[in-house]
Amino acid sequence: MVQVMPASALADAAAAQRLARERFIWRFRFAAVLFTTLQTIIEPGDRISLTWVNVGLFWSSVLWGWLALRGAPDDRTVRRIGAITMAMDVAVVALILANNLTDPSEPIYLIGVLAMLEATMRWQGRGGLAGGIAAGLAAGVWTLVVSERALGRVAFDYATMRAGTIIALGVFLASVVRRLTEQHDMLQGILDTTRDLIAVIDVDGTIVSINAACAPMLGYTQAEMVGQPYRSFFHPDDVRTGPHSQLTLPTDRPVLHERRVIAKDDSIRWLELNTAAAPGATVMHVSARDVTERVDARRRVEESEQRFRSLFEHNTDAVFAFDLEGRFTMVNPASERLTGYSAEELCGASYAGVMHPDDLERTVGHFERSARGEAQDYEIRIMDRTGRALELAVTNMPIVVDEDIVGVFGIAKDVTDRRRLERELGHQATHDALTGLPNRFQLELAIEAAATGPDPDRTLLFIDLDRFKIVNDSLGHRTGDEVLVVAVERLQHSVRSTDLLARWAGDEFCVLLAPGTTPETALTIAGRLRSVLAQPFHVADREVRLSASIGVARSDGGDGERLVQIADQAMYAAKRAGRDRISVYVPGTERTGTTQIDLEVELRHAIDGRSLVVHYQPIVESATGRIVGLESLVRWPRADGTLRPPDDFVPIAEECGLIRPLTRFVLEEVCCQLASWDRDLGTPRTLQAWVNVSVSDLEAPEFADDVVASATRAGITPDRLVLEVTETMLMRDADQVDRTVSALRHAGISLAIDDFGTGYSSMSQLHRLDVTACKIDRGFVAGASKHPRDAAILRALVDVGTAFGFPVVAEGVECPDELAAVQASGCPLVQGFLLAVPAPPEELAGVLMTGSVVLPGAVPSGR
């Protein structure tokens, strides 16, 4: 294993090598100077003063070296010692060359020895072993030459022996110095190639020396940094916390710093500084390593930790962690708020303690998969401290440390309110807001599901409340809603739990009967529903009576839409048959082109093309049979010549906005026909035509003017017209209706109430609306001949009309008994099939010419 020597240790080794070399030189110098001094004292030369000057210089050098090399001087001091010593040697040699060449003495030899040693030691560091030997030989030769010239031949042999000794000593010393130099070179190479920056800083904070690592690390050369204060390279914010200027740190306690320095390119680098100094030293050794990436990585980790902590602490969702046993190890404040338990109560406890019992098993499965390394997303319920169930959307993920799963993280969002709202919205999307029943969308889904199920033969009941629009129009939508709610309650109690009752639209409901329902059972259920809907409704302090038209259809192999369509056709067949009926769809009986959309288009064309016809039914005096009026009844001819009754198309005209054009057409036809009879038959000018109008007509501001204009164009007076409106229509609290009625009465046009006794009018309203006539519904007429109570009701209705001063018409008389009951009640006017059926104008010419009809079995009034 390669051991990397610390940068500060490398610097210390190089400085110690230089210090050892100077001390080695100093010891040789001291020995040579001492020997020279003794020889000068014993064998003084001719130039004693000069010799003593040399000795003094040598002793000064020795004394200087001793003083400077005491203790552990810094590297700069060692370098200064070498420089001063060399300067002294040069001075001595100069004196020798100047004086002793002509006055030689024995000290010259010793000075040569010293010069050789100096040269050997110093040149060894520059020229290697060869340089040291050459320097030593040069010093020895110089000594021999000087000795020969100074002492003569006799002394030359002695000097030669001395020189040989000197040369041998020089070679030995050169070998020693070579080894020291090799170590120095090795250490210097390590210093120059290490990636760490190594520097020596003096007591003033000045950089004394620095290795070559400064260039790649900071961009500065060694020359640019040596001699500069180290603080000049530090980031301003880090100067106060940099290495100490007082170098009192003990060597066994190195100090680590992380500081920012500014590189030459103005970038900021983070350095890890290792500073150390011996006690009492005047320099400090500093090694520095670029840890910018490490600091950045640490900062990123710290920032990540801070972000995680912020995310954890301030997250509005519950964040928590489990160990592999499922025990809480940490929870954030949101978890405490969510559960009502404190962190101290949760940590160490199992998650099972807060789970909803029904969700525990599923939660255990999710936790175990998370503990195996699989992230999980799921929804569960927990119980908070108060026992309230909360719905949570949970995400679990494994906690991985050193590639080992050590726990499970969890994030939970409270979705209780969201899920409740979703359920409410889902319920609203599939259920009716007023009644709470499944709506049309839900019914269609159920029908489609049934069509693809094991028993695709399903039966559907389509229910429509007859005359419900009148309730809405007369009593208001709030009362109408109350009626619907009560009707639904009755329907729900009349169907089986396996049947699906749904609201289709408005006053229409559907019942999808359970699989296996027989046709007989379907008719029984339909009859039960019709019966409960026929019972009186008591709402808004009123009694309201309704009936239901019910269509029954069994799937014929088509889709769900087809089943609804044929059930709807069966329901309309019940309406056409007179309402309050049950009609069963029979395959193959559907009519071509009879959908409502088709009827709307055909009706519009029929009105525009004036292809509708008006039939008339006489209204006569119950006692004499004299004709006093004619009710106009519109008919729509089919392509085969048959006629569509009003019940087939008048409701459609109401729904699609064609009722006003239809009324305008009938008024124009009636006015023209009256003028024609007056002209051709000479009918009395008192003969009135009764025309049915809608509340939509009365709500039109221009309706009264249109009626007057129609009469004027035809050449008749407006008082020849009687407009029939249902009792409930006139009960609407609409200012425009009052204004229209007032304008009609002002023009002389009479106003009659149709179906009198079946509505909800009060005496004050009858007086306010200035009614001029009324027609009693045939329901009271039919019962009067069979039940005394119904006869009494008929007499009461007649009395009410008489009290108000307007004529009363009993309509729907179809048999002699009914005519007798009407005559017995004192009702002055009568209308019905018994007397005359509705007929086209040309068929009424004979009756109108006579002016009366024959009353079968007429009896005088019994009142």
Explained architecture:
The chain is α+β, with helices and mostly antiparallel strands and 863 residues long. It is 50% helix and 19% strand. The chain has 29 helices and 26 strands. It has an 8-stranded mixed barrel with strand order 18-19-21-22-23-24-25-26, surrounded by 4 helices. Strands 2-1-5-4-3 form a 5-stranded antiparallel sheet. It is elongated. The N and C termini lie far apart (139 Å). The relative contact order is 0.04.
Question: Which key terms come to mind for this protein?
Answer:
8-stranded mixed barrel; single chain; 863 residues; disordered N terminus; 5-stranded antiparallel beta sheet; alpha+beta
Helix content: 40-55%
Largest sheet: 8 strands, mixed, barrel
- Report, as a whole number of angstroms, the end-to-end distance: 139 Å
Number of helices: 29
Mean pLDDT: 78
Structural class: alpha+beta
* C-alpha-based Rg, rounded: 64 Å
Strand order across the largest sheet: 18-19-21-22-23-24-25-26
Task: Based on Cα principal axes, name the global outline.
Answer: elongated
Number of strands: 26
Measured by DSSP, the beta-strand proportion falls in 15-25%
Please identify the oligomeric state. Answer: single chain
How does the SSE layout of this entry go?
Elements: H1 7-42, H2 48-68, H3 75-100, H4 107-151, H5 153-193, E1 197-202, E2 207-210, H6 214-218, H7 222-225, E3 255-262, E4 268-276, E5 283-290, H8 292-314, E6 318-323, E7 328-331, H9 333-339, H10 343-346, H11 360-371, E8 376-383, E9 389-401, E10 404-414, H12 416-430, H13 440-451, E11 459-466, H14 468-475, H15 477-494, E12 500-505, E13 508-512, H16 519-534, E14 537-539, E15 542-544, E16 547-554, H17 560-576, E17 582-584, H18 596-608, E18 613-621, E19 627-637, E20 643-644, H19 646-656, H20 659-680, E21 688-692, H21 695-698, H22 703-714, E22 721-726, H23 727-730, H24 735-746, E23 750-756, H25 763-768, E24 773-776, H26 778-784, H27 788-804, E25 808-811, H28 816-825, E26 829-831, H29 845-850
Parallel strand pairs: 16-17, 19-21, 21-22, 22-23, 23-24, 24-25, 25-26
Antiparallel strand pairs: 1-2, 1-5, 3-4, 4-5, 6-7, 6-10, 8-9, 9-10, 11-13, 11-16, 12-13, 14-15, 18-19, 18-26, 19-20
Helix pairs in contact: 1-2, 1-3, 1-4, 1-5, 2-3, 3-4, 4-5, 14-15, 15-16, 18-19, 20-22, 22-24, 26-27, 27-28
